[in-house]
């Protein structure tokens, strides 16, 4: 038997866990703009998991009202996250050639260039988008032999985290620097040997912290406007980048709720945490790097280690279609 004071303490603990779970659910579904709340929304899955603790504790204490509330919150939390682990059967079928795309944030140019090149070679990557590309990093990557694997490039390096680049196995055309963003955003069309092609966008909106969260929100809205302006009959489109947002941010879900789909959602790969990757022995905790497609279908996606970076890379195999 649990003493009366113990029951009260456990009940209080259970209710605290329920409140934490509720905060996670609320942060996921509200389009918050407060900087602190946006940062907390990145941790929504962890906050929502507290509801399961509430179910257990309030069940043990036989606090049935609290148990029912906790169970409801846990159910809502589960329903919000479960689709991430189920392949998206509603995505359009694709029957064309395959391309392997990699997203890599190289942490202010500090990542090990040989590590990035090995990931490209080992995974037969056809296109890599690189964020935080500095002029010095371009030199190191070229010295590592990246151009021997991916001979075509469209690069706009910059100081700090500003620069972005695209390296490709296939020729690039229609190269555009989208100057409405603070951090460099690029797009280009890759053309495969059989004549198939796809537009590739390398994106990097500013983070909601320490930058003013209103600036982040504005950039996410500009990405949405950019995507809405792409004609649906223009062929396959691939977006790749550090979006500085997770699928628990409404602004990001607005990008991938229409004809554009997150590659991880398409294959039911769940949460592919990529950041921070430099806190060993702790693993990355949030998923802010994404690969997104339209007019194409992801077949697989995985995160990979890039030595010397504070992000893991993402590699997706994508079938262009139809």
Automatic annotation (TrEMBL):
Domain Endonuclease/exonuclease/phosphatase, first and last residues per copy: 102-311
GO molecular function annotation: catalytic activity
Membrane spanning residue stretches: 12-30, 37-58, 64-86
Annotated keywords: Membrane, Transmembrane, Transmembrane helix
Organism superkingdom: Bacteria
Stretch forming the signal peptide: none
Keyword Plastid in record: no
InterPro entries in UniProt: Endo/exonu/phosph_ase_sf (IPR036691), Endo/exonuclease/phosphatase (IPR005135)
Pfam families reported in the protein's UniProt record: Exo_endo_phos
Presence of the UniProt keyword Lipid metabolism in the record: no
Protein's name according to its UniProt entry: Endonuclease/exonuclease/phosphatase domain-containing protein
Source taxonomy: Bacteria, Bacillati, Actinomycetota, Actinomycetes, Mycobacteriales
